[in-house]
Amino acid sequence: MQQKKQASLSYLILFLIASNFYINRILARFVFQSAGKWGWIAMTLVAILLIPVGFLIYFLAQPVHLKKWKESYRNNRLIRIFLRIATLTSTFLCLVFTMTLTNASWLEKTPYFLFVLPFFAIIYYVLKHGIPTFLNLATISIYPIAIQYLIFVLAKHKTFDFYALIPFSGQNISQPLMLGIAFLAMLLEPFWLLFYLDENSQPIKKGSFICVFTILLLTLIYDALIVTGQFGLLVSKIPFVYYESWRAINFGQYIVYLDIFAFFYWITSAFCRITLGVFLWHQSWPKASLKKSLIFLIVLYLTLIYTLNHVMLYASIRFALLLISLISLILAIGFNSVALVRRNRK
What we know:
71% helix, 13 helices
């Protein structure tokens, strides 16, 4: 596949949202739920501390600075090895906590090879249409998320069950050390991935970046406000609920439509990692071609989905998609590292 040098705006924005997914899940649901009425203040402080992080990411992602940054370590093998190990570590920790925080009771009845199959459809799309096209289309995921927030703000139902949203809520993941490691890994992951961005890409517009990063911070505060139980006067005046509380509230037949928006959130989080993984894989072996086998596996997967129960599609998106996206990125980085070492030896 011929590499296309396009703007990296879509990839960066999507990955910020993906990182926000994990940060919210770890911090808002486990760290500050025990902080009582002051939990939302602590989360607000965390969001404020993330502001300089956003400026740093924006600064380093610009082609001019990215090129200088890469030139500083291009010939330093130790720095390159460190960056790859750091990326692998952060991704692996995200993988571990994703598995820990997701209800996996249905896994016992699910063949493991089904975990991989949904990704062949995604990989095939990227191979056929190109990574830049895929990233541009994937930005539509932002709008359903915004619509979902709007729906819940205008909803009349205010019932909220915090513990109904947390599988494995009694596990030791709430220990400060584990939470600190998880948050650090998820916070640093975007910085490690800057290592893989194209230094010849077009500049990122400041307004777009500020807008998306502001949404990231606001959702972080919003999660903390709701999770720590700081409803108070707000709930009595404004009928809004937590954005994932469709699990606990009774929307009746409308729950199906609300659940669709969550799919965009999960898919966005996974697609950016899958896309990067496919890019690294092709960078390692440019002549490789899997189109025929991919088509076969896609048809096979759709047939299995139809013949099995309807929960399989939901479960694949809810858990397997996020899980395998992280695994695929880990493997892609590993393969790319092996290919790089082999080329250097030659």
